[in-house]
Design brief:
two-stranded antiparallel ribbon; 2 domains; single chain; alpha/beta; eight-stranded parallel β-sheet; about 350 residues; 10 strands; globular; TIM Barrel
Length: about 350
């Protein structure tokens, strides 16, 4: 019986000053693409990190995702994408979304999809070398040769969406979907489905609730609580292990600063309230994240293809990013993983 075909394996980073070196390692390990989050209140600037990575790599795909439209004028975003495409020809993808921490840590709610749709349409027109209308004015990219990639710029544009409204925008404007959820039915979905994945490969005999595993995958579990609380309120988290205690702790923070407490360390590290949460919620790591033995993870990756997932974007977390990248690459059977000592 043949082994199931695996999706393309990529990686995604909460960008830091070390991320260019980590992307260089990811290329050696065999990852197809390296994505970088757009969350300026939490992470390093994705454009600076990706520009540095472009100079240190030759083949790995590069892209910011998911860009938050409200943070930049569409000409600024289109110019940045065209510049990156000039530095890394044929390697650039991006995704646009409504914004989670990129807006919530500014005290703002996610954008409406209609606004995202208008913005993406303008950016795509600019990348094609066309004029676009924005705020009542006609705008275009007018860089001369050598200042950015020639238009039309070779940039794949995805939409970061989990629900039907965002997927409808992707169907009309995008080259695919970046999602955190496996679609229930593969039929009728976008032909390019990139799934964000979190977790850690366990060492021999290691438990999913071990201190090392919690440090490496716990921030993803905590981030799920953050998102559930924002979308469903108290009723959504109170029924989860440690959820009520976590909610009461963050709600005790003064209202003007509460959003900072909720999303502290989101997908980077455990915030001060998250550490207590993980004492109760750690047993969920094996179910809610891709945490398990290398064989377990290989099996789970194989099952994603039949669900319509074409690419898995794995985010390494914790104090040892090279270890996480290397261990996941081995579990996924990437060509360069056997050549790295860890």
């Amino acid at each position: 019986m043949e082994e199931p075909a695996l999706p393309v394996i990529s990686c995604v980073f909460a960008p830091s000053l070390d991320t260019p070196a980590h992307i260089e390692l990811a290329e050696r390990l065999g990852y197809r693409r390296a994505w970088c989050y757009d969350s300026p209140a939490l992470c390093a600037d994705p454009w600076m990190v990706l520009a540095l990575a472009a100079g240190r790599t030759r083949a790995i795909g590069l892209g910011p995702a998911a860009l938050v439209p409200s943070l930049r004028h569409p000409v600024v975003t289109a110019a940045a994408l065209a510049t990156l495409a000039g530095l890394a020809p044929g390697r650039v993808s991006t995704a646009f979304g409504t914004g989670l921490t990129g807006r919530m840590l500014l005290g703002e709610r996610p954008m409406r999809w209609a606004a995202v749709e208008e913005y993406v349409a303008a950016v795509r027109a600019l990348l094609r070398g066309e004029e676009a209308s924005w705020n009542g004015s006609l705008v275009r990219l007018s860089q001369a040769a050598g200042f950015a990639a020639r238009r039309p710029a070779d940039v794949a544009v995805l939409i970061a969406a989990d629900g039907p409204r965002g997927r409808a925008v992707a169907a009309g404007l995008g080259d695919g979907v970046l999602t955190s959820r496996v679609p229930r039915e593969a039929a009728g979905q976008s032909p390019r489905q990139v799934l964000l994945t979190f977790g850690t490969v366990l060492d021999d005999g290691e438990d999913a609730a071990s201190p090392r595993a919690v440090a490496a995958a716990g921030p993803a579990l905590a981030a799920a609580y953050h998102a559930i609380y924002e979308s469903k309120g108290a009723g959504g988290v109170d029924e989860l292990p440690g959820g009520r205690q976590w909610r009461e702790a963050v709600e005790a923070v003064d209202a003007p600063r509460r959003h900072l407490a909720i999303h502290e360390g989101h997908l980077l590290a455990l915030g001060r309230h998250d550490e207590a949460l993980l004492a109760s919620a750690a047993p969920l790591l094996g179910k809610w994240t891709m945490t398990g033995t290398g064989a377990d993870i290989g099996t789970r990756l194989g099952a994603l293809t039949s669900a319509g997932i074409t690419e898995v974007a794995y985010q390494p977390m914790g104090p040892d990013i090279p270890r996480e990248l290397t261990a996941f690459a081995r579990a996924a059977g990437l060509a360069g993983a056997g050549q790295e000592s860890g």
